[in-house]
Design a protein that fits this description.
The chain is of the alpha/beta class. The chain has 3 domains: about 170 residues, Rossmann fold; about 90 residues, Rossmann fold (3-Layer(aba) Sandwich); about 110 residues, 3-Layer(aba) Sandwich (Rossmann fold). The chain is built from 14 helices and 14 strands. The strands form 3 sheets. It has a 6-stranded mixed beta sheet, with helices on both faces. The chain has a 4-stranded parallel beta sheet with strand order 8-7-9-10, with helices on both faces. A 4-stranded parallel beta sheet has the order 12-11-13-14. It is globular, with a radius of gyration of 24 Å.
């Protein structure tokens, strides 16, 4: 997988914000070296967030986001501002572009407070520095640039890269749980929902992480698991399964082999594991008519046996013996008001970056709504949640 193939969820998301006509789009174009955004002297030219996946040196694979002016007016303006605020939820580094000839306004200050409240690393970039008649006293996280004259653009890119270097580089999906030469069996069902000719993203990423550890990845379907385990000359360190096959895989995997799922590993990777385990237990409190939100981070064509819209609702009804009401969202859709829901069941979040997943979890926590994810809930329903958490000794000990 090359840089251009890096999944969006694994790219640093850099959001450019500011008032209308502060020169955000001009700065974006100067930073990217592309005519990514439309530039005009007319205030409010950018009407929706513009996303662009690209390689930005010296940082690497990124997603550049150009947002509409935060001081837009009218009903349409309010909608644009709402979209810009939503972008903050997935922004790893924020660049606040200010018109240097005007200076920091109340709008800029309000936005800056919003960025700080969300603990997003940021830079304040005073654009149009070529129009300044006298110098500006800059703070540590501020700098002058001129998008028109291309002044300080290289320095801007280096400062963005410095802010983006976080512990993310050292995070592992499963590699920190393995040793070189361990055997790991990955169970990958091939059904009507599987993409033709390829594996889904969590499976690809997990296999890559296993290989980077120096361990051996053995990939099988659930129908071949038993015979594969018998035929291996070395006992596997663990079996990792797609959540849909959890029940059968648990039955076929000996108790002395660690067992977990891709979804559970990604819950930990995205920072959702602990609240998701707590959220799964609340399934016992669901009653007839209660609303359950099933949220997916990506959009895809629904299959006749889609896990989110078909299988999960069926399994929940069978487990609880109740008839709750299910509401479905996908992609960037995530309700601001979560209070109507008694439970949120989220996908593994492989298409969302960690900041977006943590934001959704925090929204749920702030509003007192339990949240869990597909794999953890399925393991709980099938009575194998504790077993599937043995791969994380600290968490497992807390459950005893």
């Amino acid at each position: 997988m090359g840089l251009n193939d890096t999944p969006s969820a694994n790219r640093v998301h850099i959001g450019f914000f500011g008032r209308r006509n502060a020169g955000k789009s001009s700065v974006v174009n100067a930073v990217t070296g592309q005519e990514l955004a439309v530039v005009s002297d007319v205030a409010g030219t950018t009407t929706d967030p513009v996303y662009k996946s690209m390689e930005l040196l010296p940082l690497g694979p990124v997603v550049i986001i150009d947002t509409p002016g935060m001081d837009d007016e009218g009903n349409l303006g309010e909608l644009r501002v709402k979209k810009a605020r939503q972008v903050l939820n997935k922004t790893d580094v924020a660049v606040l572009v200010v018109d240097a000839s005007v200076g920091l306004t109340q709008w800029d200050t309000t936005l800056l407070h919003l960025i700080q409240d969300k603990n997003i690393p940021f830079l304040v970039v005073y654009n149009k520095s070529d129009l300044l008649e006298k110098p500006i006293a800059l703070k540590e996280n501020e700098m002058l640039v001129s998008a028109r004259e291309k002044e300080n653009i290289h320095a801007l890119k280096e400062r963005i890269a410095a802010l983006a270097k976080t512990e993310e580089e050292n995070k592992r999906i499963v590699g920190d749980l393995l040793n070189p030469f361990d055997f790991v069996v990955l169970v990958v069902p091939i059904d009507s929902a599987a993409p033709k000719g390829r594996l889904i993203l969590p499976q690809q990423q997990t296999i890559r992480d296993v290989l980077e550890t120096g361990a051996t990845a053995v990939v099988v379907r659930e129908t071949e698991l038993q015979e594969t385990l018998k035929g291996l000359s070395q006992k596997p360190k663990m079996v990792i399964t797609d959540s849909q096959a959890f029940k059968q895989v648990a039955k076929d995997t000996p108790d002395d082999i660690l067992l977990t799922s891709f979804s559970i590993l990604f819950a930990r990777y995205k920072g959702l594991l602990y609240p998701a385990v707590e959220g799964a237990v609340t399934l016992n409190k669901i009653d007839d008519g209660d609303k359950i939100l099933i949220a997916e981070g990506c959009t895809h064509h629904r299959q006749c046996e889609d896990i989110g819209t078909v299988k999960l609702p069926r399994w929940i009804r069978e487990y609880t013996g109740k008839q709750p009401e299910f509401v479905f969202t996908s992609g960037t859709e995530f309700p601001e008001d979560l209070t109507p829901y008694q439970l949120i069941v989220h996908c593994g979040g492989c298409m969302l970056n960690e900041r977006e997943v943590r934001y959704r979890q925090k929204c749920a926590a702030d509003q007192g709504v339990p949240i869990t994810n597909y794999g953890i809930l399925i393991a709980y329903i099938n009575g194998i949640l504790k077993r599937s958490l043995k791969v994380f000794p600290d968490l497992y000990d807390q459950l005893q």
